[in-house]
Design brief:
single chain, 5-stranded parallel beta sheet, Rossmann fold, alpha/beta
């Protein structure tokens, strides 16, 4: 399945790094970007991706606050949280709200890449 990806992170550096990392993954058809919760919700409503990578700390709020809403808008959406706030409490809460994965930006980018590859194979 072709992957239509939306990256939601306010850091230009992180988005550029992710774009470079994800360039090695077969099956990515499009990579879109958003820097706020509002942009992410608007983008998902207009053209739902099949995979969304979400940071928790964004300029207009916490990514955790829109996980359930994103899944309501697009029930088949695969959602990966990628954050430096990898506290187990955040992990549990994000997964309970509907996130499919939760990754620590500092240590789990390889696991994120594997999850993206799995979406492409599904």
């Amino acid at each position: 399945m072709p992957i239509n990806l939306l990256m939601v992170d306010d850091s230009d550096l992180i988005r550029a790094s992710l774009r470079a990392l994800l360039g090695s993954v077969d099956g990515i058809a499009a990579i879109r970007e958003a820097t706020t919760l509002t942009e992410a919700l608007d983008s998902v409503r207009r053209d739902p991706p099949n995979l969304l990578i979400l940071d928790l700390n964004l300029p207009d709020g916490l990514g955790i606050d829109i996980i359930a809403q994103l899944k309501q808008i697009s029930p088949t959406l695969w959602l990966a949280v990628l954050t430096l706030q990898a506290d187990p409490i955040y992990r549990q809460r994000c997964l309970a709200l509907g996130a499919d994965w939760f990754f620590d930006k500092a240590t789990e980018t390889d696991a994120l890449l594997e999850a993206v590859r799995q979406v492409g194979l599904s």
